[in-house]
Each structure stands twice: as C-alpha cells, then as structure tokens.
Amino acid sequence: MQTDPTLRVLIVDDARVLRELLALTVENDDRFSVAGCAADGAQAIRLVEQDQTDAIILDLQMPVMDGLTALPRLRQLCPDAVIAAHSFDGEALERAVALGADLSVTKGSGLDELLDAIVVGRETRRQLHSSDKDNAA
Predict the structure, then answer these.
(1) Considering the domain 7-136 in this protein, what is its CATH number?
(2) Mean pLDDT by 10 residues, the chain (137 residues)
(3) Where are the domains of the chain?
(4) Contact by Cβ (8 Å): 35, 51
(5) Closest to 42 in 3D by CA, of 19, 62, 15, 21
(6) Run of H or E including 83
C-alpha cells in the first residue's frame, strides 16, 4: 500500500518517440504520474509556471531553448523538484549539475534506473530540506 502521493514528473525532450516512451514508463510505475510533456526548454518553463511538478526529466540538447539554458529558470520555479539531466553528452551533463540538476543520466541507460534515481533524489532533497529547517530553528 502506497502512503505517499505519486511524484508528478515533467518530461522534456525534443524527440517525440522518447517523450512518449518516457511517459509510458512513468505512467506504468505506481510511484509516478506524468505532470506534462514539453518539446523544448521554453515550453517546459511555461508548463511549470502554470503548475508545479515534483521531478523533471530534462533533455539537454533541444531546438528553441536547450535544457542547459532552461535549467536555471526551472530550478528557480521548482526549487524542491528533482531535476534529472538526460543526455548523451558527458560534458553537458557535468554543466547541468553545476547549474543545479540533481542527477545526470546518460541517455541509453535503463529507464527503471532513471526512475529509481529520481525517487532517491526526492528523498535526499526532503532530508536536506528537513535538515535546513532544523538548523534554522
């Protein structure tokens, strides 16, 4: 029996087939639901301005606005969300972490592992947030 609500995941990738595959994988895992899908960073920003999300799977190479450009604004809009940078480019993944991504995941790695990493990232963020509150008191 699940006691926590499902994590709402925003999927951001310019490849329609990959967006659909990720959405299907997310929806088939009881821990998650799809908060929305975007084809570029600008569209992702518009979606999170309308509705918060718990996690973002963010492609880094996209037309219009790439993930590296969108990442700081997404982090600002969703400070508690787990952001998983998703790319084939190792250097871009390193830059994404420097810009505020919680996870760097190489495209082609298992999708179940990606979702497991998001759950761990969410728990880590909760613990850090709880620790920050305790230190402020």
Answers:
(1) 3.40.50.2300
(2) 72 95 94 96 96 94 94 94 94 95 90 90 80 58
(3) 7-136
(4) yes
(5) 62
(6) strand 82-87
